[in-house]
Each structure stands twice: as C-alpha cells, then as structure tokens.
Amino acid sequence: MRRVRFVTLISIMALVAAACAAPDAGDDTTTTAAPTPTTSGSSDATTTTAGGGETTEPPAAGCDEPIRIGVLQPLTGGLAASGTDAKDGFELYWANHSTEVAGCTIEFRVEDTGGNPDTALQKVDELVQNYGAEIIVGELLANVTFALADRLKDNPDVIFMSPIGSADDMTQRNPFPNFIRAGGWTSSQTSHVLGQWAFDEGYTDVATMCTDYAFGWEMCGGFTQVFTETGGTVASAEQLWNPLGSTDLGTYVTQLSGFEPDAVFVLQVGASVSDFFQNWSDFGLKESIPILAGEVTADVSNIRNVPVEQVEGLISSGHWAEGRDAPETQEFVELFDGATGRLPSYYAAATWTASQYIDEAIKAMNGDISDKAATLETMKGLELLTPFGPSVLDEYGNPIYDIYIRQVVVREDGRIWNVVIDTYEDVDQFWPKTAEEYLQQPVYSREFQGNAGG
Amino acid sequence: MLRSISLTGRVKLGLAVAGLAFGVAAPYVFDRFVIGLISLALIAGLFAQSIDLLGGYAGLITLGHAGVSGTAAYGVGYMAAKVGAGFPAQIGMGLLAGMTASLIFGVMAMRSDGVYFIMVTLAQGMIVWGLSIRLFRITGAENGLTGIPRPPSVELYWQYYYLTLAVVVVSWILLGIIVNSPFGVSLKGLRESETRMRMLGYNTTGQKLYVFLLAGFFATLSGILLVYLNGFISPSTVILAASAIGVLEAILGGIGTLVGPMIGAFIIVFVQNVVSIYVARWPTLMGLLFVVVVLFARRGLVGAISDGWNRWLDRRGASTPQEPILTSSNQATGP
Amino acid sequence: MHDEPTAAGLATTPRAGGSGGVGDNARSWLVWGGTAVAFGVLIWWILTQMSLTAFFAQILNGLSFGAVLFFLASGFTLIFGLMRITNLAHGGFYLVGGYIGISVVRATGSFFLAMLVSALAIMVLGLFTERVLLRPIRGLEKPEVLLTIGLTFILGDMSLAIWGGDPTPIPKPDFLNGALDIGGFVYPRYRVFVIACAVVVGAILFWVEKRTRWGAMVRAGVDDRETVAALGINIKAVFTGAFMFGAFLAGFAGVIGGAFLTLLPGQDFEVLLFALAVVIIGGLGSLKGAALGVVIVGLIDSFGKALIPELSFFTLFAPMAIILVLRPRGLLGRE
Q1: pLDDT at residue B320, as a whole number
Q2: Is the pLDDT of residue A5 over 80?
Q3: What are the CA-CA distances from residue A425 to residues A198, A390, A422, B15, C263 (Å)?
C-alpha cells in the first residue's frame, strides 16, 4: 500500500510538472519578432485617414510605453479548438509583421476564458487594470462578448474589438460606444446572401435546422427572411431547432426527410456539425436533398475530421473562404499551414485581420492612440485588403465584405477546404435592405424569423 | 475573560479577527483586480457555505444549487434590464425568485435522500438551465442580460467590495447561529441517520424542507451579490458545473465546517482566474489538487489543519483541557 | 436459484406495499390496465402527428441512442449497485476510451480492434482508479465525489492536450456506413448495429448476472455486503473486478458512442449526465433498470424532440425529476 501511494505521488508530481511546463496560456510577448518585411497582400493597404482637414503630423516621436493588446479566447473546454485557432491567427500576424509600429512597440497577451463569462470579466479587469491593455480583442461566444462589451463600455481608454463574436445587435440596435467589429461579421450577414442564392438557384421550398440559441436564430433568420422575401417558401413547421450540446440528431433528420424539401439550410456548431453530416449521410439523404450550410457549419475547424464523402460538395456562404484563389488569401493560408500544420478556419483569419486593423490604425494615428474615439474613427475609415478580401467598415463598426458562396472540395493533399463558386460584392450587415428599413424590425429570434410567408 | 476560553478557542478567535482585519484593510493594499477577485471569492464562499449547510450539516448533497442562486440573479437582472425597475424592486424580485425556487425545489426533493437527493437536485438545476435558455423574453436566452448597474453608493469596486464583505460576514454569523442552535444540532442527527431521527419523533421531511429553504436563502444572497458584481447574468451561471464547483469548494475546504467552504472557494477562484493566466493546463492542476487533497487530507483542508493542530496540542501535554476544532466526525456516513 | 425478490416485487406490485390479498390484485390490474390504455391513446395521438415510416424511424432513433447509453449506464449502475460508489469519472472513462479508439483506428484502420483496445485500456485505468485512488476512501461519499470529479478534470484536460480540441468522429468501417433499404424503409446501418450490440451485450450481462458464480457473488454483494464478506468470499477482489468491468464497458461505450456522437472536450460531463439520468430513471444498482431506463430515455428523447420541440431542452431532466418525485428510488430501484 505504501508503495502504491508512493507511485501515486510520483505520478502526480510528474503530471504537475507536465502541466506547468506546457506553453503558457498567457504568453507575454514583449520581444519584437524577427521582422520580416510585410508580406505583400496582407498589408497592402490603401490607408485613408479619417476626417477631412487633418494637417500632416510630424513623424511620431515614438511611444513612452508599449501599446498593449489583451486577447481573450476560450483555450480550454468545448471551444478550445476554435479559441486556439483564434489565438494562433493573432500570434501569427505579429510573428510576420514588425511589432515596432510608427515608433511604438506592440505587446500582447492571450488569456483563457474557458468559455465562461465570469472568468472573462475577471481576466479583462486584469488585462485592463494591471497589464495596461488599451485594446481588447475577443471573444468567441456571444454571451461572453456581451458581458465584456458591457464591462468596457464606460472605459474611455479601451477599444474593444470583436472579430469573432457575431451577435447581430451589437452593431445594430444596441451598439456599444467603444466597440468595433473589425475583422468580424454579424451572424445574419452571410446567411442573407445564401437566401438570395438559394432562390436564384431555383429552390422554392426549403426547410431549416438551426441550433436553438441566438446564433442559430440569427443565421436561420437571415436566410429565411431573404429567401422568403425573394419568393421562396419556408414553412414554419419545417423550421427545426435543436438544443445546444451533445444530442442525438437522428430525430431531426427523420423529420427533415419527412418534409421532402428542395433543400435544407443547416446551422450547427461544434460536435453537432459532424453529428449532422454523419446522420445525413447514414440516412441516405446526401444524394437526394442538398444542404445549404451556414458559415460556421462548413468551416474547416468543424469539418476537418469528418469523412470526406460526407461533406464533399457542401454548399455554404461565408465571408471567409480558405480556398479562395487570391494572393491575399493564399499567402495567409500558406503561412498558417506552415506554422500549425492545418488550414486556417475563419477564427484564425478573423484575429489576423483584427491585428491588421490595429497595425494600420496605429500607423494612421502615427503611434498616438490615446484618443480612443479618434482611433476608432480612423479604424472605421481604413480600407484594407485582408485575407477575407477587401474590407471596409460601415458607420456602425461592422465590416462590408464580399460574401462568397463556397463549396467544399478535396485538395491534392487529401484535405478539404472551401473554394469560391460565386461572389456577392459589398454586402453589409443589412443587405439587401437599407439600415433604416432593417433596424425597424426586431432582432432575429425564434419567434421572428422574418418569414414573409408568416 | 479570555482565560476561560481554551487555547483552541483563542486561536480561532484570533484568526477570525485577523481575517476580518485583512478583509477591511484589503482595498488599501491591493489593486482593483485583486479586490474584484476577492469579492468573487467571497460570493463563491457564501454559495459554498450554503451548500455546506445542506451537505455537510444535514448530509444532503445538492447538485442544483446554482439553479437557486441563478434564479435570484435572473430576478434581479430581469427587473433591471427588461423592466427598468428601481433597486428595491430589483432586490425584492431577486429574493422572491430565489426563495420561490428554493421552496419548489425543496418540496420536490424533501422525500429523497442520499444519491437520489443528489439526482433530484441535479435535475432541478438542469431544468433551470433549460428555462434560462428557452425563456428568451425574460432571460435574454444564451446571450444573457447586460446593463445591470449597481445600487447607488456601492458603485465603485471598493465600495461594492465592502458591501460584499459585510453581507458575507453577517451571513457567516447567522450561519454560525443556525448550526449551533438546537435545529442545527438536529441536522447532524439527520445526517447520521434519518431513520433514527424519525423514530425519535422528528419530522424529518419538514426538517429537510426547512434546511433547504435556509440554504436557499444564503444562495439567493450570493446570487444577488454576483449579478451586481458582474453587471451581467447568462445561462453560464446556472450550468451544472457551477453547482458542482460549489460542492467541490465545500468538500475541498472541509465539509461540515463554515470556514472550510470559504477556504475552498478562495482556492478554486484563485486557480480559475490567476493560475490559468500562467499555466495552460490549469484544469489538470485543479483535478490534481482535488485528488491530492482527497488522498492526503480526507476531511478537506480544514480537517487536515485541525488534525495537525490537535496532534500538536497532544504533544504539548494533557494538562490543558482539549477542545478539538472539529467536534464531530465529518466523515460521511457509510452507504 | 437466487431470486430477485426486491426487483421483481417492485416491478409487479404497486408501491403501497402490503402482501397479497384480492384487493391488491384488483388494484394491480387497474393500475396496469390504466397504464396500457393511456399508452394506447398516446400511440394513437403520435400516429396522427407523423407518418408510419417516421414513427418506426423515431422508435429506432430512440432505441439506438438508448443503446449507446446502455453501455455507459450498465457499467455505472454495476459500480454503484455493488460498491455504492458514484463513479463520476465514468464520463472521463468514456471520453478517453473514445480518443484511444480514434488513435487505434488511425493507426490500424480497424474499428473493432479499437473497441477492444479501448475497452482494455480503460479497464486498466479502472483498475488503477479503484485500487489506488478509491480504496483508501471506501465508503466516504464526499471524498469520492471530489476525487472522481478531479479525475475527470485531469482526464479531460489531458485528452485536450494530447488529441486537441477539434470535433472528432470515430470513422466507421465501410460496411457500417450508409443506409439499409428494407423495402423502401431506409435506415442507417450503424444505428441498427448499435442496437444489435446492446442487445447482445445486455444478454451477456444478464447471463453473467444470473448464471455465473461471479454474477451470483455480485448480486449477493449488492443485496448484503457484510454477509458475503462473512462467507469468506474475497469481496475486495469482486469489487475490483466489478469496477474494472464497469470501466471496460465505459471504454467500449466510448468507441461505439464516438462513432455515433462526435467526440469533443466537455463531453465527459455531458455523457455522464445521460448515464445518471438513465440509471436514476431505471433505478440504481439494477441492470434491468439500466435497460428499462435507456429505452425510456431514448424514446422520450426522440419523440419528445419531434412532437414538443419547445421542451427539447428538458426531454432528459423533466422525466427524471418527475419520476424521482413520484418514486424517490427510481422505477426499479432498490435500497
């Protein structure tokens, strides 16, 4: 018994050593990375300074203090894969660009929220108060993003950027003052487009299956509204909502096949993505009923490990397409692949782009970002060429992008990715309506799906 | 007068005074982040203490207590964010919601015991979670409710900290009174053997309901404190893990004591929020902490400290009357 | 022959107790008759809501989901029934078993080899857990809770570190992919396979329980531990063996389940909840109960989500709560 206890103690000590030796969750990056000249495409920015009558400033004397950025992502728990992608994308940018910008040194720290709003709130306090972060980049989940935005809204010395958290309303009816979605999106922005495309393709009767929470409501709502207002039909009895978390999707797939729709719009997240495609394929439906997927459902982070035959040819819409044949996209993809061994998801592209915006904004402000309001205005005025493609921000702080209709294909090396088969240019968060029209309707919910058929 | 209190008693009193002094002095020494963390730990400690009242003293482990504190928090949040009511209404609703939930859950659970009690409470907690996601208009669903300002005069972080400290200290005293009252002593009998208590003529079902309500009250307080601390409430606060962490904090620190859960809460809050900054594999460390404590300090940290203290006292000599810190065995009764 | 008086008794007589008598018989007929009628009405109503093919498909959906849960629940209930250990690390066993299965499939391409290897590996983990971690705290409920949850944290986080956090389904062998077509009725092969596996494994477990010496010892130990020990049977070895067997089943469940429900960090607690719900509904310690429980849970899940989507968050826990309130020991439970 003694020996057993001793062995246990040794194993425990070994595990502790392993745990502590693991790379830090909170990497303090103070060293300037070996500055490679900015790779063309990623930083080929035509920068317009905000506001009209700005006199040319003398070159910045440099900062007294480094500019610190705090990044909050879930690095443990069910979202760890996405959060890690986001972290990698952010760090990759600064590994490939100089952290000496306009005479200022850039430092950043990445913190783990565990997907928990309480932890996120504590960590953001630590980052802002102790670490001195002036820019916070995060998070992934809508509820954590809301919590952070609420905490930071009264702080005039911090800019909160959300390149991933896509809750519609944050840049619509309930905007937060120092909040900007550079590198981000709204949930319904990409599904609006798919609604249009689906109708143009000749689908008239579509069923939907989305996860039963705000992100699912907004994605489904965006699709349903545009599709039905263009002339298609989505029967409300054919809108299925499955609960978050691990659950057997067979019962939903059976229902969907009973509806016999022209196509099915699907938004699932996490493990349910793979569950869905397995079931869809196993029930023999892959050949008979086409799937139109919401962006996240076809994102490589969710379908990397799915058997190829289950997702090959999958149609989706998105602001990100890692298979997009353009230099600004492919250079980023190659860098990411080289550094991590996997193809980048939109989480990685998003934080890279956010870093790009930070980089260019600081340059445009000549290193002085003490006036956060002015910095935000400057950021809004930037027109950048990002891995997503061209990016311009609207007056609410949300990007206007080209949205792509994507298809999953297999590369020569056997891995799958999304290539572009059609492009809708200059799509903002309200497309195809104007801001005034759009803001008169409530935010998408389970009750309000914008269904023109009622 | 002090002479009449045993050495152990004097040490405990000294520690309590020192702890209180530390608590009062903290904002002068530490920065906002640390004070915020201490506030969070105090609230978590109160929550764990309320769980301990049920689990350690009455022997009824609950895995759904976050459902109670969360309901109270949502009550406040709803009045603040959706209705725009004043602070008395918010707090009133919080108390009402929390106590109503306690009553309903208590009535549902009072006929169960042991593992079945755990399961019923677990189911209750999960139902609250499901409701928090489904009742979009009341709870804001998955996104939660933001825009919950603090009451006037406790808006600043250190002011709110003092409020939290005050509430926790008063609650601690109240809890102490409860567990040392005749009712509290009868709870221990309940923990040892419900059948025996029934044979002795106690209305054990009523006892269980009553202690559930008491525990629910303190959980309600912790929920209200939490929602004002964060200014935010979402379903994440009522997930199973939140209830489970409360139980873990109580067991880690020492179930069956009042100081144990508070210690456990401080440790776990520290690991989750501070250790996680420096160590990527912090969940592993937390798991290891639990395993090590169980293997080497079976009755929790307070138990280990108490044993060590008693051993030292024994070595000192048998002339002074001894009074162990833990007067009764805190080991769970067998199967 | 060793009868199962308690389980059988509970299953056929109304709980109100009493023994025999004409009144009781009539009462029992009434209860069963009433249940049958209610059931018939329910089926009739369901058939008005969906087509016949959909009806059969949903039955199979529920049974296949239940089948996956059966492997988890049977191991869990065995461990609890015999040793009164609530092995909260069972979910961790499942997850690690699944991930090991992934590695085996990636290395060898054989799904069935993965099932075997995972089951054996988790069995060894179970041996370590029982002998080293759980033995010192036998009978102490709260330390067991803390330890098994701590173990789950470690297993979960280490899995994240080793296999990463991407959602990872276990690739099925070709002949188990796709659909069976029986005269127009199309249904996934894998789900049929899982049901078949559960029936086979269930039959083996029942046979072991009823017909083998070891099974008799287990049953005797569940009913009366002290007597068994007094009879000189090496009860410790029986316990360890039972725990290992339960772990074996959990590892096996990880592979079967991982091809059904994609593996993801955090799933350890999610499947643990399923297992708990099942054994509670069916009754802790009863293999029959586990079987009944998985059927009920599976069917409620698939039909509930199809017919009353508003309650889809509650299909698991509402029945559990209701059953526990009405029958605090579960449907077929014993104490």
Answers
A1: 53
A2: no
A3: 17, 10, 10, 68, 38
Q: Which residues of chain C make contact with A83, given a CB cutoff of 8 A?
A: 165
Q: Give me the architecture of the B2-316 domain, per CATH.
A: Orthogonal Bundle (1.10)
Per DSSP, the three-state class of A239 is strand
Does the beta-carbon distance from C65 to A248 stay under 8 Å? Answer: yes
**A112 half-sphere exposure, CB direction, 13 A CA radius:** 27
- B199 exposed, middle or buried (CB, 10 Å; 0-12, 13-18, 19+)? exposed
pLDDT tens-digit readout, A83-123: 999 999 999 999 999 888 888 899 999 999 988 888 899 89
Which chain B residues touch A73 with a CB distance below 8 Å? none
Interatomic CA distance for residues C128 and C89, integer angstroms: 13
With tokens 């404190």, the residue in question is B225
Which residue in C72, C137, C264, C300 has the most chain A C-beta atoms within 10 A of its own C-beta, making it the best mutation to test that interface? Answer: C264
**Structural domains for chain A:** 27-44+61-185+326-397 (3.40.50.2300), 188-318+402-440 (3.40.50.2300)
Smallest Cα–Cα separation from B35: which of B161, B132, B167?
B161
How high is the ipTM of this complex? 0.85
Chain C contact set for B304 (CB, 8 A): none
Q: What is the pTM of this model?
A: 0.86
Q: How confident is the model at residue C31 (pLDDT cuts 50, 70, 90)?
A: confident
| Beta carbons of B40 and A18 less than 8 Å apart | no
Structure tokens at A191: 């599904």
Q: Which tokens is C268 given?
A: 């350890």
What letter would DSSP give residue C157?
H
Q: How confident is the model at residue C14 (pLDDT cuts 50, 70, 90)?
A: very low
Peptide bond into A35 cis (omega under 30): no
The residue type found at B18 is: A
How far apart, in Å, do the first and last CA atoms of chain C sit?
A: 22
pLDDT tens, residue by residue, A163-221:
998 888 888 887 888 899 988 899 999 999 999 999 999 999 999 999 988 899 999 99
Query: Which tokens hold the place of C105?
Result: 């499939």
